[in-house]
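Hello,

I think I submitted the zinc ion job twice by accident. Can you confirm which output corresponds to this input? Input:
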Amino acid sequence: MRELTDSEIRAAFLNCSKGEAKRLNLPRELSELPWVDLDFLGWRDPQAPDRAYLVTVQDDRPQAVVLRSSSAAGWQLRRSICSLCVTAHTGGVSLLVAPLAGPAGRQGNSVGAYMCSDLACSLYVRGLRETGTRIHESLTPEQRIDRLRGNLAGFLAKVRGAEGN
Ligand SMILES: [Zn+2]
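Support: Only one job matched these inputs. Its output is below.
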């Protein structure tokens, strides 16, 4: 994806107030991130580790989402495969929950997805980061990148509420 600026990212949030988007913590040194190898940028809030964020670009429009770690799941989680990049982990997958955009989200509705806890899906599909847990797949890196982008687009559509109504 192309490099994004601080103000572009803050303006792109679908599911939080403008005030919240203004205050939330972005990664330091945005210009030093490996943008060319990212399908989306995901990060944890250093001051609130149960909060995470991701931003991507669709049709040249930045789209960002606020996420929370689900406290309900905890140690009972058996899932170990990221629903976005389909990377297998041992204990490296989190259930992250996004409030829906607009009034539905303000009423408390949300959508959850199992994601790599470090939000580094883009690096896993490119073989730039390894988990040590392998599932055999015959897909090429390009096919895994396409699948990640498709899964991410599906998740964003759910956050926007564009599906199911
Ligand atoms: Zn992943």
